Hints:
- By secondary structure, the chain is of the alpha+beta class.
- The protein has three helices and eight strands, in the order ββααββββββα.
- Strand 1 (3-9) and strand 2 (12-17) form a beta hairpin.
Amino acid sequence: MPYTWNQTSETEQELRLWPHNSLPPRGAMITILSVFMFGLIPLLAMLGSVVLWGLLPFLLITVLGLWLAIQMNYRARSVFEVFTLSETQAHLVHHTPGKEQQEWSCNRHWARPEMHEKDGPVPHYVTLVGDGREVEIGAFLSEDERIMLYDELVQRLREPVAQ
């Protein structure tokens, strides 16, 4: 599950959310190396020929392009959110790489989660409403994860923080 609840103090809970990353760095390295090795197979027939030097740059450009695409994906997936619940406040911070962080806070007793099953940009879109604003939470999660997140938010906002 790409989110976790932590009890940071007796009166405060913290929810950390992050996108799932299905390709770890080791898998990315193996993928890039495999593309390079399989790309070299057709070039073996060209050894000793001038044609080899004409085809080799295209293989290198392909490998470089794949590496850049994977790096851009990792950077885009480094987004995360932190939702903090105290006795009186609900506070959400959305961190996006290369951008200013976005914050939302409201009185905990007025905050409520809402699920937009079909009206949001993704199915089962979860938002938090309070203090005259509506903010998204966990839009990068899968559909099943957003459903579970919504249920947990409803439960956590109803119960007192101190355990």
